[in-house]
Structure formats: structure tokens, C-alpha cells
Design a protein that fits this description.
Structural class: mainly alpha
Number of strands: 0
Mean pLDDT: 89
Strand content: under 5%
Length: 45
């Protein structure tokens, strides 16, 4: 969702604006990618 909004240069109050600067850009994509890369899961029997 962030990648699509960044490609469309979305601005304003949108959920994909992760850093809150009212623009969806590469910095939002970097934050989302970093969080996805560090995703931790737990497997329980």
C-alpha cells in the first residue's frame, strides 16, 4: 500500500503516511520495509 501511494505521490491525511509528514514518499517505504524485514514470529506447538 505504501509503495503504491508513494508512486502516486499521495499527500494529506492518509494511513500509508507512516512518519506523519503528510506526504507518502521513500522515507515511508523505507520504514515499512525495515519493519517488515525485522518481523519476529513465534511458533508454539
Amino acid at each position: 500500500m505504501v509503495d503504491n501511494d508513494a508512486a502516486d505521490f499521495e499527500s494529506g491525511y492518509v494511513t500509508s503516511d507512516v512518519d506523519g509528514n503528510r506526504f507518502v514518499d521513500g522515507s515511508d517505504a523505507a520504514i515499512v520495509d525495515n519493519n517488515a524485514f525485522n518481523f519476529v514470529s513465534v511458533a508454539k506447538p
